[in-house]
Amino acid sequence: MKRPTLSLIAVATALAAVTGFAALTAPDGSTSAGAKAPAKLPVERSSLLCPAPATSEVAETDYTSYTPASGTGAGTGTGAGATAKAQLKAAPTAATPGSTTTKKPAAAKAPATVTQPGKPVSAEANGATAPALTGSATGSLAPGWTVQQTTVVPAGGSRGLLGVTCTAPDTDFWFPAASTAKERQDYVHLTNPDDTAAVADIELYGAEGELKTQLTEGIPVPAHSSVPVLLSTLTGEAPAADLTVHVTTRSGRVGAVVGAADDKLGSDWLPASADPAGTAVLPGIPSDATSVRLVAYAPGEDDAELKIQLVGETGTIVPASAESLHVKSGMTAAVDLADLTRGEAGSLLLTPSDAKKPTPFVAALRVVRGKGDKQEVAYIPATAAITARATVADNRSSGSTLTLTAPGAAAQVKVTASAGTGAGSPVSRTVTVKAGTTAKVTDLVPSGLKGSYALTVEPVSGGPVHAARMLALPDDGIPMFTVQTLADDRGTVEVPTAKQDLSVLDD
Description:
Helix content is 0%, strand content 45%. It is mainly β. Strands 1, 2, 4, 7, 11, 15, 17 and 18 form an eight-stranded mixed sheet that branches. Strands 10, 12, 13, 14 and 16 form a five-stranded antiparallel sheet that branches.
């Protein structure tokens, strides 16, 4: 069924308008005389999209919304105080492609609204009727705004701890590690935040190349609505254990995320991989992982020959179970990395076997904790380094583990634990990450904490750093967990300036 969408958690304070003119650039790339370097200014608006959290009647979902304080990043704008609030509204609902039925959305309580930077807010939604959400933040609450959606399903086919950082709308997404295997129920959730309809295409790539799909005209996603698409209904070909899903839009833009449920391993969200690149870091593998499966795809015309390394707490090693992975052009490749962590938290580093011949690829991990009927699954996509600032919300007093990986040169980062949703004072710490290692932070908690809190990471010096947060909430002997990678929040934008120069008109 097509799921309704609401305008999400919104946040607003007026920010003085920022204006500027494009800089004049000479053919050699230099700036024209008198032109100033672009100024970095805080963004004025951010948009986020959250998928419908669950189809289980026993699901319990927490939303946590947060904007970092001005002392941890780009600063804030000026203007009126934080008095404006955007309200949640039910959106029209329509049928999922292939269906002729509709479903009237149940009334939903609006998640709490952020009113000031540095103070997270939370709300709950229970059962199967919680809809997908859309929302925006403006003014001083826009830079770095993040929303975490965390769902506990204690029993049933979608059992598990499902966590996702709500995504920004885009036009292109890659999802390695999806599946149409008989034990899997994988849905692509497409959410449209705009006033006009979007049309999306979904391509599936298996071990032998592209799978034939049955929808050739694209998938319509009406304005302000969300469409979940079951992958197995898109193709008549045999079930595939490892798939790469490519979502693009013919018109408009969407938020996209894959909900993956396994009959034996539980369920979680699979976020999009970083854009295709010649190297990749997949951060946040827990120290007690009992199974790690790497899935990769090469979208270009050339094969990718990848060297596999684990960046652990004591150094970088080549796993004995798999030293490399050959990824054929246009095909999905996978390998099980048995006994990978050996008791150390770490990150997977994928580099070209021949440094002179890097081939772009995308990658993700399926990670399992526990054994027998007490297993739980999470997914870790390739993630870019943090360039300025990144935040993850909904951390708990226990069960939260932040991992920081410096695959190249040593680095220092500032980590800030925000105030709590109920109470608590923020605290900060500078963490040094040695070259070629992963550092683990488990004890940075706001003093006097009540509720949950956010963690913000800012590079201070040294080389690139990749980060992830594991949230563990054990239940009835099952080591339920979810991993969210930290992406740069893009809280600032370069605004170029120019000076009028009439000499360019001279002959």
